[in-house]
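Weekly sync, protein design subgroup
Attendees: M.S., D.O., the rotation student, P.L. (late)

Item 1: inverse folding check
M.S. brought a backbone from last month's batch and wanted to see whether the design step gives back something sensible before we order anything. D.O. pointed out we never logged the input encoding, so this time it goes straight into the notes. Structure tokens as presented (198 positions):
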């Protein structure tokens, strides 16, 4: 039987934010995801206000509308309004060197791609999921803060803030506008925390 890994409450919260972003960005929202969003509550902080905005947007959205918005933003006819991949944001093309570097780090960290996933691994949802797993120890031992920072700087912090700003401002974004705000604010918090810990 595997030993239970104990991580600090602050790290559990960080992993929870990454997991939430991964869930919201990995697939079109169904009724269960919308119900979860509708039940979110936030405090008076800027991030808390964004959470409240997401809950309000979810209350005003049907499953069909949410699915159409997801399609328009990320899939589209030909391509969606946004391409949520590190390679695209860093080079202007898909499947470029940032993806190759990520695959090298995934191999080193013993992170395997799920067999049922067709998206390239540098999709923002996959990266958020990997970061949550590094924090909680889903791929073995929890990664050190230094390893987490290295992964964040190399694969997330260098482009995800721009993606979340673009999502926040996207023409098709209604439900996803506050997701963009949440992602942008959380990326700022993570960057500042890593800098302070250095």
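Designed sequence read out in the meeting:
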């Amino acid at each position: 039987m595997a030993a239970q890994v104990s991580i600090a409450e602050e790290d559990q919260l960080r992993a929870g934010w990454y997991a939430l972003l991964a869930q919201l960005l990995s697939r079109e929202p169904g009724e269960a995801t919308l119900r979860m969003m509708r039940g979110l509550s936030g405090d008076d902080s800027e991030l808390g206000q964004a959470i409240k905005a997401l809950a309000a947007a979810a209350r005003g959205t049907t499953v069909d509308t949410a699915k159409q918005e997801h399609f328009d933003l990320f899939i589209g006819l030909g391509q969606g309004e946004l391409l949520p991949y590190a390679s695209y944001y860093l080079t202007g093309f898909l499947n470029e060197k940032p993806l190759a570097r990520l695959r090298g780090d995934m191999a080193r960290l013993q992170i395997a791609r799920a067999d049922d996933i067709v998206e390239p691994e540098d999709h923002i949802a996959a990266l958020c999921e990997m970061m949550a797993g590094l924090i909680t120890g889903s791929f073995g031992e929890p990664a050190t803060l230094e390893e987490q920072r290295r992964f964040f700087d190399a694969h997330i912090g260098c482009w995800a803030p721009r993606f979340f700003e673009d999502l926040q401002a996207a023409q098709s974004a209604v439900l996803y506008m506050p997701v963009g705000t949440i992602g942008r604010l959380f990326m700022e918090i993570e960057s500042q925390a890593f800098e302070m810990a250095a």
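Discussion: DSSP finds ten helices and no strands in the chain. The mean pLDDT is 94.
Action: P.L. to compare against the previous round before Friday.
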